[in-house]
Amino acid sequence: MADPLVALACGLSAAFLFLLLFGLSVYLLWRKRRSQTLYRGLIPTTPTIPRCITPVLQTSQSSSYGIRPDLYQLPEEPSEWALPNGSAVRLWFAVRYQQEREQLVVSLLRAANLPVRCQSNATLVKLQLLPSDDRRHRQAKARRKGCHPQFNDTFVFQVSNSCVDQCSLNMNMYTVDHQKKHHLVGQVLIPLSHSEIKEAAGKVQWRDLDNESDQPLSKNGDIQVSLNYNQSLHRLTVVVLRARGLQCSSDAGVCAQVSLKIHTQVVRNKWTSVAKGNDPSFNERLSFRLLPMQLDTACLTLQLQQPSTKEPVLLGIVVIGPFMYARGRELEHWNDMVSKPQELVRQWHPLGSADNMQQTQCQPPSL
């Protein structure tokens, strides 16, 4: 009879001990969470930024950037800005790369020496990182009109540490008339590198806009293309930038078909999206796989087309490649691409006649 009583007593003791330990654990957990809540209440919601003698960009909670002109090495008086000689338009900006966030921060400050015909219009600058899978551009609008418009805007591009040296910053300046039409004033293409960005961090730089409007147009119009070949990745990059002087309606949709050929065989066809106007702007990156041993037997064929429901209307063609396929500008562009693997080599090309060109079985994107 004593044995069952002993067993019952032991069971009750074990149950009481278990409940006691469980209650103690719950109480300690509650105390810990309460202390954490009180600790959070003591942390200020607005971070403090210590004084720094080097230029910095403050970051808000929405991850947008605000420019701090007082921290940049700016001239004290507007008269001390170095104005360009002649009719060139000059653009001032600053570039900083935040390696821990893998972000390229571009601060667009101001421009100078705009032509008289542009001074009464709004001024825009479109920024894009090339080559990039992100086809969206960033846009800055001048805060005031006139000969020397000011922007004071900052933009962020997400780019990995390993890709910075392969990128270029493209900035196009436009004026917008009363009909909301964009007119290109000029552009700047800046190859990037870790060493140059680090050296120029926080310093205001300037570039004169590249304005090629004075060059004579060809009969069928011209196309502007940037090329890069990465031998280690076996990647040929074609950036179709823009075209001008096309023999088509200003309201017509235009796309560019880019074909990679090896010998006489078409290996791959790719298209840009459709842009409107006889001076369309594409700014699109197309990549092809190409082995180093194929560089002397490959070429690029670029066709500008007007898509339609039946068959495309061909506006012009240009072939860029080695000596087997091209001469003049087109051969020079190909050779520059091969000899400058760290750069996006840009050049204008006149479009040849498309009257006798045979159509391929591939169709361009529809409108």
Please provide a written account of the structure:
This protein is α+β, with helices and mostly antiparallel strands. The chain is built from 3 helices and 19 strands. The protein has helices at about 1-40, 195-200, 330-340; strands spanning about 60, 65, 90-100, 105-110, 120-130, 140, 150-160, 170-175, 180-190, 205-210, 220-230, 235-245, 255-260, 265-270, 275, 280-290, 300-305, 315-320, 345-350. The strands form 5 sheets. Strands 13, 14, 15, 17 and 18 form a 5-stranded antiparallel sheet that branches. A 4-stranded antiparallel sheet has the order 7-4-3-10. Strands 6-5-8-9 form a 4-stranded antiparallel sheet, with no helix packed on it. A hairpin with a 7-residue loop joins strand 5 and strand 6. The protein is elongated, with a radius of gyration of 30 Å.
> What shape does the CA trace take?
elongated
Count of alpha/pi helices? 3
- Main sheet overview: 5 strands, antiparallel
- The fraction of residues in strands falls at 35-45%
> From the helix content, strand content and strand pairing, which structural class follows?
alpha+beta
Q: Tally the beta strands.
A: 19
Distance between the termini: 96 Å
Q: What is the helical fraction, as a range of percent? A: 10-25%
Radius of gyration: 30 Å
Low-confidence stretches: 38-64, 69-80, 358-363
Q: Taking all residues together, what is the mean pLDDT?
A: 77
Reading the helices and strands in chain order gives HEEEEEEEEEHEEEEEEEEEHE
